[in-house]
Amino acid sequence: MQDWITGFAGLGLLFIGLRMVGAEVQQLAGGRVREGIAASLNRRGAPQGVGLLAGAFTQSAGAVTFAAAGLISAGAATLRQTLPLLPWSSVGTSLLVLAAAIDLRLMAFLLFGSVGLSLLLRVDRYAGLRPGLFALLGLALLLFGVGLLKSAISGLRADPAVGALVVGATGSFGLAFLLGLASGSLLQSAQVATVLLLPLVQAGLLGLAPVAAVIYGASLGTGLGRYLLAGAIDLPGRRLTLAGLVVRAAGTVVLVGLHGLEGYVGIPLLQAWVTAAAANPALQVGLLYLGSQVLIALVGEVAGAGIAARVERWLPDPAAAEPPELRPAHVPRGEVRDPAGARLLCQLEYARLATFLPHYLDEVLAPEDRSPGAFGLARRHAGSTAILGALEHCLSAVLRAEPAAADLEALVRLRTRIALLRALQASLHAFAQDVAALPVGERPARVERLVQGLHAVLGVAGEALGPRSTDEDRQTLRKITGERGALMEQVRQSLLEQGGQAGHPERLVDATLHFEKCLWLLRRLSDDGAAGTD
């Protein structure tokens, strides 16, 4: 009974350690993983190297997958560019399997002591060091859990029931493969499923052939589990995980074919190389896992472009027919795994939307003054409102993801800007409707000047609130939207006098009021600070 409880405790510590390492390393890396991936996409061979390093650093191919999906959602990358990241990040996670194949309990004890001493010295009070400290604690728990599992299996191997259970579960290649498929789908991690086999291998209960079947099934199951999980995220995430699943499926077919050639034809291939490279059975398992992931990655290199093209046909984008100006370009959707990165993307989308403000007046401008490819007022307002709705939904998800304290102030300011921008868009829409309701020949000259003046102010606002704004731009916007109550009262009286003659006094007064409100909202936005530079 003691061995069973020890094994259960080791299993729990293994999962706790993996969760801690993944969570803390992701927080430590923050947006740097995303930035590193984005910087590598236009360099030949760089995505493969970055995927390998990111997988080794985070020990989570899933984290790399969702970071890459975020880049696709933001329009910073394509499916073909990011697809190589997935299999090569799995190659990087082989480091955990190789480390667990060695008896590292002494390393775990050293880590426990080091972390405890650091806590005693209050090193955790420094926010920048805290994630790294707890990541080391998670690694220590992981290694200690593997050690407990090895001890428990060593005590249980004399039990005939245990031996019969293992032989029954892995007695054929098909059963072992299905076991790996189920464990990989459930655990979302092929390396964890492989690490769980190491105590059985070291105890002599499992040979290399059934272990290979479990590894191949777990590799496919990991891709399947991620794709099923992607049902809760956006289209780029579903496309990327489906493409990753197809790559893994193709690689698994190759691995199973090589296994058949080696086992039934006698051609020395992967298992023969592993056996010759290491005498330690556990290290052989680590090398077998590494070799299988490398082969899957190489299959992805050969067939990745074709797979990406097919997946884009299988999962078409229903919003692709809409022009880019009328749909979100940077807003991440679904579950937020990187609050800091999602906030930066929302700021980019807000700044992009601000540059479209002058286009609200296209319908009431002269044809030569309109923007290229101008849309009707109703279509423009519907598209901009939809983008704002996506922004607000994303910010709510970011707040639910418990962002760091340093990001909270920026999130509150961004939500204020979005509320002001929504009010500004509504006022611009109403102003343009009021002006458009006046027949062109009956519009007073002052109304035309209001339209031209507001259009010019919106052009300045697009620069001052945009992604490349400067303090000088915002100062200019504040100056031209300053308090001018006396001037507006003169304009209002003049319009009322001319409107009484023209028969449209209500429309003229409403247009003037909406003009004033637009200027007031623009001044509020300029006072609130930089839109895209937090």
Structurally, the number of domains stands at 2
Shape: elongated
User: What is the gyration radius calculated from CA atoms?
Assistant: 30 Å
Strand content: under 5%
Give me the secondary-structure category. Answer: mainly alpha
How many DSSP H or I helices?
Answer: 24
Helix content: over 70%
Question: Uncertain runs with pLDDT below 50, 5 residues or more?
Answer: 529-534
Largest sheet: none
Q: What is the overall pLDDT average?
A: 83
Distance between the termini: 58 Å
Number of extended strands: 0
Question: How does this model look, in words?
Answer:
The structure is a single chain. The protein has helices spanning about 1-30, 30-40, 45-60, 60-75, 80, 85-90, 95-100, 105-120, 130-155, 160-170, 175-185, 190-195, 200, 210-230, 235-265, 270-275, 280-315, 340-355, 375-400, 405-435, 445-465, 470-480, 485-500, 505-525. It is built from 24 helices and no strands. It starts with a helix and ends in a 7-residue tail after the last helix. By secondary structure, it is mainly alpha-helical.
Keywords:
mainly alpha; 2 domains; 24 helices; elongated
Protein topology:
Elements: H1 2-29, H2 32-40, H3 46-58, H4 61-73, H5 79-82, H6 85-92, H7 94-100, H8 105-120, H9 130-156, H10 160-169, H11 173-187, H12 190-195, H13 198-202, H14 208-229, H15 235-265, H16 270-277, H17 281-314, H18 339-354, H19 377-400, H20 405-436, H21 445-464, H22 471-480, H23 485-502, H24 505-527
Helix pairs in contact: 1-9, 2-3, 2-4, 3-6, 4-6, 4-15, 6-17, 7-17, 8-9, 11-14, 14-15, 14-17, 15-17, 16-17, 18-19, 18-20, 19-20, 20-24, 21-22, 21-24, 22-24, 23-24
